[in-house]
Amino acid sequence: MMKSSEQWDDGPGPTTPGERPLRGWLDVHAHYTTEHYGQACEASGHGQPDGMPGLPQWSSDAALELMAQTGTAAAVLSISSPGVHFGDASPAADAAARDLAAHVNDSGAAMVARRPDRFGLSAVLPLPDVDGALAELTRAYDELGADAVALLTNYHGRYLSDPVFAPVLAELDARGSVVTLHPTSPPGWEGTALGRPRPMIEFPFDTTRCVVDLALSGTLAAYPGIRWIIPHAGAVLPALAHRVTVLSLLTGEPTDFPAVLSGLYYDLAGTPLPVAVDGLLAVATPDRLLYGSDFPFTPAPAVGHLAGELRRSPALRDACFDLDSGSPAAELFPRLVKSPRDS
């Protein structure tokens, strides 16, 4: 029987033979929505975002119930694709994106203020509006106390290595920011998705495209202070790591890509088992792996099932998803370690 959120504590969770004890995981890939955000998506033609049936319903109570079930101590909340900028580069579209970013970040910060022990915030930015993004980044950190920043893999077809985004990356680098990367529909998806929802195939490939480009362009090296969390067990990156290295010699961008991947962090949202984790562990050590639920875009029953599979996986025996001092989660999100969990 699922424990209520008010019964949750930090002690070891229930286990069955073959399962490792739980002390409280950190979920670094958790989403939230608001009624106003849903209305804005609908009004802009994103009522079925990225080809999905619609935005799922979310509430803090439902999130806390699921966290209790899965042994999750805290969750870092972010807005998912399609983000907040729905128009072109016009002043009107930029202004609307700034307002929507402020709304969702204020809403997320309010939830954190109510339960600082259970929630963190990865703030959204109104990119590709760089001036608006810089202003919101400053406000998110200095006024709202954000724990991280959420970036999409591309903004209206512009990838993060685009020089126009350099001021934003420089500020993130100066602050030593944690960036929770999230895929979105790639440019030209109309011809490549073949009528299917983009999260099925396009999302993993856009994550891969973005990270390969960040590496080969020198962007990752130029901003070493940014700590990147790559979603969905690294998407297709492990499978292509050595191919990228070989072909980078031909493009004049020689890169030891497996070495680059070993320096990033990865969440295990989506479908990391039974195959993806093995590939990921060929290029990243267990101390680079983090738990991710993708709730509510992944329904609660599927989240619960995956959590159980992760606990039982022999491949993850050396991984630590807890908020214990010294864990990867604690290193990236120290505020949540310090927050007492009395209920």
UniProtKB/TrEMBL annotation:
The keyword Lyase applies. Pfam families: Amidohydro_2 (PF04909). Signal peptide: none annotated. Its EC number is 4.1.1.52. It catalyses: 6-methylsalicylate + H(+) = 3-methylphenol + CO2. The keyword ATP-binding does not apply. Residues 27-302 form the Amidohydrolase-related domain. It comes from the Bacteria. It is an enzyme of class 4 (lyase). Keywords: Lyase, Metal-binding, Zinc. Residues 1-22 are annotated as: Disordered. This is 6-methylsalicylate decarboxylase. The lineage of its organism: Bacteria, Bacillati, Actinomycetota, Actinomycetes, Pseudonocardiales.
